[in-house]
């Protein structure tokens, strides 16, 4: 019985490998509905990248106080941590397409209000807080809805290439938006830049209107508190009963947290460790970005050779290498060229390996998690990841007062190595990564 099951699994695996070998990026272009959703997301990302710079300037110009920037940033994170897991359970029984359209329209109204208020001089700090909280709250509903739609509009054999293409183009569009933001603000003003963001939300909603999300048979459910609580509990139970999902959730939290020292201590890294300035920050950012772009593009090919567990191990080693080697190699920094070379190489490795594992996480979620649980698990994962960053940032802010940057980086690298060793010896991590779990829903609910 066991041998028959084993042979069947091997045949299915060979069949899947044969199908995947025929798939390429060109095939994704023929996935019309997925392409529509992806284009809408790219338009959104372009607007957000411009808005990020324009909004930062608006906050500072209105308040004249850097503390307000921190307050608004904190308010922006609250819905991701608190509301997203709760929203995921509600989204599950609703039409995801409708949720995405409505949330895009709400975001458009909010940014239009900010732009108009700034243009006519009546915008105040508390208004920015309210609009920021509103936008973040509706995004907490849109995220799980969007995640749950992927398996409905993209066939399973296209997951790797589809998600990889989306990730790559998203990074490229964000780079372009950031690069042209200053020019846009210079030409049409800060309010004009915010209106551009409003336009992208409207275009996104318009495109999604024409997407066939295959939800015609879904009947909109009336809100019932008992049903909602049960659905929410089922989502947590699903995570609790699947050891692989639990491990991936913990690893996702670790990945978000371990990168906080880099994100928050880039200036001390450039000045204290590498003995440079803005040019080092530029090399650091460009190298990581190029690495992430290449990692996203090559993920479908790499995952055929290296299994998911191997990608996680590679990512852990890449992070550890970056954190440890940059401070340790200081005696070798005998010239500016060597400093730039070391920075570029280790930053590229970091970006490349992190992009591989990020792509793997996205594909894993769609493949492993049951479609009717995807919004809930997406909400839980997003909340856990979002919560880990401010906690890690708070710890770094305390430690940095007593320990130099080099020690913090080396310690972070050692932590990454410890987690990597645990991954190497983990039997669960490499088991059944692409199987769906709990074929019987009652098994999850028991």
Automatic annotation (TrEMBL):
Keyword list, A-Z: Cell membrane, Membrane, Transmembrane, Transmembrane helix, Transport
Gene3D superfamilies: MFS general substrate transporter like domains
Membrane-crossing residue ranges in chain numbering: 105-129, 179-212, 243-260, 280-299, 311-328, 334-357, 377-401, 407-425
InterPro entries, per the entry: MFS_trans_sf, TM_effector
Subcellular location: Cell membrane
GO cellular component, one term: plasma membrane
Highest taxon in the source lineage: Bacteria
Pfam families, per database record: MFS_3
Membrane-topology descriptor: Multi-pass membrane protein
Principal localisation: membrane
Protein name, as recorded: MFS transporter
Record organism: Roseburia inulinivorans
Lineage, highest ranks first: Bacteria, Bacillati, Bacillota, Clostridia, Lachnospirales
């Amino acid at each position: 019985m066991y041998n028959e099951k084993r042979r069947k699994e091997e045949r299915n695996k060979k069949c899947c490998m044969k199908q995947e070998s025929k798939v390429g990026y060109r095939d994704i272009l023929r996935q019309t509905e997925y392409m529509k959703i992806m284009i809408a997301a790219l338009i959104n990302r372009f607007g957000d990248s411009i808005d990020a710079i324009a909004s930062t300037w608006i906050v500072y110009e209105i308040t004249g106080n850097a503390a307000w920037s921190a307050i608004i940033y904190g308010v922006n994170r609250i819905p991701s941590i608190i509301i997203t897991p709760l929203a995921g359970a509600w989204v599950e029984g609703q039409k995801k397409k409708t949720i995405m359209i409505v949330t895009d329209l709400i975001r458009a109204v909010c940014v239009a209000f900010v732009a108009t208020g700034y243009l006519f001089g009546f915008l105040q700090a508390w208004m920015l807080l309210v609009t920021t909280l509103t936008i973040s709250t509706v995004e907490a509903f849109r995220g799980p809805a969007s995640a749950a739609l992927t398996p409905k509009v993209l066939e399973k054999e296209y997951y790797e290439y589809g998600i990889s293409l989306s990730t790559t183009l998203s990074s490229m569009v964000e780079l372009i938006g950031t690069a042209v933001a200053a020019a846009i603000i210079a030409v049409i003003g800060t309010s004009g830049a915010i209106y551009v963001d409003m336009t992208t939300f409207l275009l996104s909603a318009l495109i999604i209107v024409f997407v066939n999300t295959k939800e015609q048979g879904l009947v909109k459910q009336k809100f019932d508190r008992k049903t909602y609580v049960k659905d929410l509990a089922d989502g947590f139970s699903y995570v609790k009963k699947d050891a692989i999902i639990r491990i991936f959730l913990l690893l996702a939290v670790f990945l978000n947290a371990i990168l906080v020292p880099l994100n928050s201590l880039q200036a001390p890294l450039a000045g204290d460790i590498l003995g440079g300035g803005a040019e080092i920050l530029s090399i650091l950012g460009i190298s990581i970005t190029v690495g992430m772009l290449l990692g996203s593009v090559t993920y479908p090919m790499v995952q055929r050779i290296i299994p998911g567990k191997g990608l996680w191990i590679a990512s852990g080693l890449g992070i550890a290498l970056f954190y440890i080697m940059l401070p340790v190699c200081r005696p070798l920094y005998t010239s500016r060229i060597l400093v730039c070379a070391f920075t570029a190489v280790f930053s590229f490795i970091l970006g490349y390996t992190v992009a591989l594992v990020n792509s793997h996480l996205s594909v894993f979620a769609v493949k492993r998690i049951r479609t009717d649980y995807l919004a809930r698990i997406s909400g839980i994962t997003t909340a856990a990841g979002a919560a880990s960053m401010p906690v890690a940032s708070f710890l770094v802010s305390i430690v940095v007062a007593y320990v130099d940057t080099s020690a913090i980086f080396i310690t972070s690298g050692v932590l990454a190595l410890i987690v990597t060793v645990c991954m190497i010896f983990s039997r669960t991590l490499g088991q059944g990564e692409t199987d769906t779990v709990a074929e019987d829903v009652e098994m999850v609910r028991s």
